[in-house]
Amino acid sequence: MKNTSSNSAVIWIPRLLVGLLFIFSGAIKANDPLGFSYKLVEYFEVFHITFLNGLALTMAIVLCALEMLLGFALLIGARAVKVAWGLLLLIIFFGFLTFYSAFFKVVQTCGCFGDAIPLTPWQSFSKDMVLLALVLVLFVKRKEIKPLFSAKVGDKWLICAAVVSVGFGVYTYNFSPVIDFLPYKIGANLPDEMKIPPGAPLDEFELTYHLKNKKTGATKVMNDKEYLKSNIWKDASWEVVGDPENRLVKKGYEPKIRDLAIQDEQRNDYTKELLSSPFYSLFIVAYDLSETDKDAINRLNALAINLTDNYNIRTVLLTSNSAADAKAFAKEHKLISEIFYADGVPLKSMVRSNPGVLLIKNGTVINKWHYHSVPKYEDIVKEYLQK
C-alpha cells in the first residue's frame, strides 16, 4: 500500500519552496527592471553578444515575468508538465551563468535578487544547485503534481498572472522601483554612506613570494609572514623570482557609496561642496545625454528656471558625457543648470531614470523622481520650500 501522505510531502515541499522562491526572485528583479537590464548587458559583454544590448530592458521585464509566472503556475498546479520543463531549463540556464561568473570571475554580482540581497557568484551558484535539486524532484514527479483548479480556470489564472507580472515590470520601469534598495534612496545621507566608520576593519592582503636558490635551483613559495619569520631574506643564496603576488584574504568594511566623484570640466572635485550644502539643491541626473528623454529635459529646465528665479535653488545637471557633448546639449536645450560630471555607474544607481531628479539638502536625499512623476513647480514649493 502506498504512503500517499509521504508522496504528497515529497511533492508539496519542493513545490512550495520552488514556487515561492521563483515568485520572490522575479518580483525583486521586476521591482527594478532597468537595474536588471544593466546586469544583462554585463553578461552580453562577457559572451560577446553585445548586439543584444538594445533588447536588454525588454528581456529583463520578460525574464522577470517568466520567473513569477512559472512560480505561480507551479503553486496552483496549472500545466504542470510544461511548467516543470520550463523550471528545469531556466534553473540550468541560471546555474550555467552563475558558475561561469564564479569560475571565470567575470560578473561578480549575478543580480539574482537584484540589489535587495547581493550574493557573490559562488553563493548564487550554490543557491541554484539547491534549487536544481528541488526542481529535479518536481520534474521526475511532474505528472503527479495535482492542480488546484480545473484546466480552464487554471489558464485564466495564468493569463491574469502574466498580465500582472509584465505590468509590474513595465510600471516600475516607468515610475521608479516600488522599494528602493540602492544607497541613494530617499532619506539616505550621501556623505555618511561614503564614509568608513572609525575602527572599521580594513581589507587584509597577503603577499606571496616565489623564491629560487641560486646554487641548487630549488624553489619555494612563501607568504609574507613565512618569508619574514624564516629570515630567508637574509640568505644571499635565495632570490625572489618576479614580483610578489598581492592577494585579498579578508574583505574589510565597504561603504555603500564608494565610486561617486563629482567633478567640473577641469576635473576639480565638487563632491563635498555639492553634498554639504545646507540649502535645497536640485540634481538632474542624465547619465547618457544621447539617450535621455528630450521632452523631459525641457520640462525639467523650465522647473529649474522657476526654482532658481524665485527661490535661488541651485540646480545641477550630472552626466557621464564629455564636456564638449554636455555643452552642446546644454546650448541646444538652453539649460540653466550647472554641469558637473561623474562616472555612469553611480549615476545609474542614483535614480532609475534618464533623466531623473533628486532633491537634496545637507547631503540627504529629500525626494527623488522618475521624469514621468516629477511634481509640478507649485507642488514642490508647497511641499518643501514653504515649510
UniProtKB/TrEMBL annotation:
A cellular component term, taken from the record's GO annotations: membrane
Species whose genome carries this gene: Mucilaginibacter rubeus
TM helices/strands, residue ranges: 54-76, 83-104, 124-141, 153-173
InterPro entries for this protein: Methylamine_util_MauE
Subcellular localization, as worded in the UniProt entry: Membrane
Boundaries of every Methylamine utilisation protein MauE domain copy: 9-139
Keywords: Membrane, Transmembrane, Transmembrane helix
Membrane topology note: Multi-pass membrane protein
The name this protein goes by in its record: DoxX family protein
A GO BP entry: methylamine metabolic process
